[in-house]
Amino acid sequence: ELYFKNLSKQKQKKVMEKNGSHHKLRVCVATCNRADYSKLAPIMFGIKAEPQFFELDVVVLGSHLIDDYGNTYRMIEQDDFDIHTRLHTIVRGEDEAAMVESVGLALVKLPDVLNRLRPDIMIVHGDRFDALALATSAALMNIRILHIEGGEVSGTIDDSIRHAITKLAHYHVCCTRSAEQHLIAMCEDHDRILLAGCPSYDKLLSAKNKDYMSIICMWLGEDVKPRDYIVALQHPVTTDIKHSIKMFELTLDALISFNKRTLVLFPNVDAGSKEMVRVMRKKGIEHHPNFRAVKHVPFEQFIQLVAHAGCMIGNSSCGVREVGAFGTPVINLGTRQTGRETGENVLHVRDADTQDKILHALQLQFGKQYPCSKIYGDGNAVPRILKFLKSINLEEPLQKKFCFPPVKDNISQDIDHILETQSALAVDLGGTNLRVAIVSMKGEIVKKYTQLNPKTYEDRLELILKMCVEAASEAVNMNCRILGVGISTGGRVNPREGVVLHSTKLIQEWSSVDLRTPISDALHLPVWVDNDGNCAALAERKFGHGKGVENFVTLITGTGIGGGIIHQHELIHGSSFCAAELGHIVVSLDGPECLCGSQGCIEAYASGIALQREAKKLHDADLLLVEGMSMKEEEPVGAAHLIQAARLGNARAAGILRTAGTALGLGVVNILHTLNPSLVVLSGVLATHYAGAVRDVIQRQALSSAKAVDVVVSNLADPALLGAASLVLDYTTRR
């Protein structure tokens, strides 16, 4: 709350001048249960902290006001919010008919409240039946609706309710790119969609380092240690109540057998919850020495409990959404969250029909620690939502507009898009330099940092972390929203684990190195790692000549020779992650020795190292320099001198380059006959010198059916960094 007060003081004058209006937006926030309040409370604090812009009215209804569910309206009062209206809307019975009657009772009571409040806008969260009553009432009374967390996908009747509220709502705040795309596909107006992230993440991402031992002791006992207990939270599935009750019974049996201290929270108010409570009491859970059964835990304390748990089990959306922020292992049971985007920490047991399956899942997950996930937010949702609210023009027509069909399938226009650029941190580990860059979604390198690559593992990792932290901090000042970190490195890489298996001789002490874990832990961002040749291919696929091409190959011509293969729009890694080692295609049985130990590889003829070797031979024999060339006394001989000599008429130098180009061309012919791509992209500093020779060899040596291939030179300025960035941008966009 203090943060929002300070923020508002800094921006108040500027925003007032821009708006030219002193009208306060009257906002009604309606909360129905403990779960939606955890998402709405950060927004309410933000609104309350800016009284010069907003008037806040709080309406409480639903299970907040029921003793069996913890009378959770009290935590709203403890947060110092004035509750304008309390509406008792739950019809007891906890079956399907009771849910319908509860919606009807809310529809009867809400019009009088809304007539008295007359808000400019009502904020409604999620997919509960109470929220459907709120949205229906507001829509029919011509009150604008802002819907939080629309566009998401899950199981049960919640999906239908969520999408119904979306059609009633005038404005949408979504948490993920995928949810945004769903809203666009549902024909919602692009200009009224804000991709903000989940508001609860604003509190989650700063919570883990707070004192937690006293909270664990209070709820689970003084003898319990962090990572040595379980949090269980399971709700009924309204579309299959009988099965969900049976699954809950199996879950409790598995937890009893697993024999770890467990905090069990009572289920929500949906149909079937009463039967689930009966199952708990039948098994004596409330009196079992290993269990603590509670109706409600305050959100701030609940955060600490799941952050330091050995595992969370159940079917609550909290498990697949919020818990990922801490990397706590989660077991998601049944179909209630089917379709939700999840991090690595979630193990799904879709058909949890036996105790053994659930017990096996507990044995697999308990005590693990996964990388922190930011799929659902980066901790800055509330400032974006407040800006979005301030941008609402009450003079605009109230009637909704739909977009038939959706015309933009990649990005929607929102109030924050003008100020923030969705970006990736790209890291390129070369033989000489270590580079980090901030790269935008459009492939623009916003800022680049370069340092010499240290020789030892410890120094190299320390420098990577330092440069990434510096770049991430500066990205905030440059209004770049970092989605993740992509790393391009030489050698063989296991991209699934983020591990460098073994490297080239150019990078020392770089074998069996886990890059993902330390960088993800330090930055709290997802991390992807891949070979530099594969990254070059990904860069071409997203930003270069390979965009939209189904099958193509990229060859990097630099210090070494590398490459990447795109087949049916996907990158090929191979069974042991050494696909596309194109530099080690053998084109001569008795050729020069390669760094790999073999003879006659393309790299032994056409790489920068090979050309440097031949240039030194000519120079030592005093056959390199020709008229128009000069070299300083201590200047090292390199491939550039060989190329310059060939241009100035040195026949021997020209012959060496011709042989190198032929070797590369023969390698490309082998690739054409093996993979039959429609495009070959030559990348790297030597690409322009080899393009003509490669095309000539193809025309002489390739089968007629393969000669039609296009051979082009890459137009990308920095394929390694762009490829590393595309690891992040492609994956996060797809999710």
Automatic annotation (TrEMBL):
Task: Name the GO cellular-component terms.
Answer: cytosol
SUPFAM superfamilies from the entry?
Actin-like ATPase domain, UDP-Glycosyltransferase/glycogen phosphorylase
Signal sequence segment: none
One Pfam family in the UniProt entry: ROK
Q: Which UniProt keywords apply?
A: Allosteric enzyme, ATP-binding, Cytoplasm, Hydrolase, Kinase, Metal-binding, Multifunctional enzyme, Nucleotide-binding, Phosphoprotein, Transferase, Zinc
Q: Which residues form the UDP-N-acetylglucosamine 2-epimerase domain?
A: 53-390
Annotated an N-acyl-D-mannosamine binding lies at 492, 504, 532, 581, 584, 603
Give the top-rank taxon of the lineage listed in the UniProt record for this protein: Eukaryota
Q: Which reaction(s) are listed as its catalytic activity?
A: an N-acyl-D-mannosamine + ATP = an N-acyl-D-mannosamine 6-phosphate + ADP + H(+); UDP-N-acetyl-alpha-D-glucosamine + H2O = aldehydo-N-acetyl-D-mannosamine + UDP + H(+)
**Enzyme Commission no:** 2.7.1.60, 3.2.1.183
Residues that bind Zn(2+): 584, 594, 596, 601
Pathway participation: Amino-sugar metabolism; N-acetylneuraminate biosynthesis
Active site located where?
Answer: 532
Coarse class of the protein's main subcellular location: cytoplasm
Alphabetically, which GO biological process terms does the record hold? UDP-N-acetylglucosamine metabolic process
| GO terms assigned for molecular function | ATP binding; hydrolase activity, hydrolyzing O-glycosyl compounds; metal ion binding; N-acylmannosamine kinase activity; UDP-N-acetylglucosamine 2-epimerase activity
Q: State where the protein is found.
A: Cytoplasm, Cytosol
> Which CDD domains does this one have?
ASKHA_NBD_ROK_GNE (cd24060), GTB_UDP-GlcNAc_2-Epimerase (cd03786)
Database matches in NCBIfam families: NeuC_NnaA
- Whom does it interact with, and what assembly results? Homodimer. Homotetramer. Homohexamer. The hexameric form exhibits both enzyme activities, whereas the dimeric form only catalyzes the phosphorylation of N-acyl-D-mannosamine.
Which family is it part of?
In the C-terminal section; belongs to the ROK (NagC/XylR) family. In the N-terminal section; belongs to the UDP-N-acetylglucosamine 2-epimerase family.
Q: What is this protein called?
A: Bifunctional UDP-N-acetylglucosamine 2-epimerase/N-acetylmannosamine kinase
Specify the species: Tinamus guttatus (White-throated tinamou)
Q: What is the lineage of its organism?
A: Eukaryota, Metazoa, Chordata, Craniata, Vertebrata
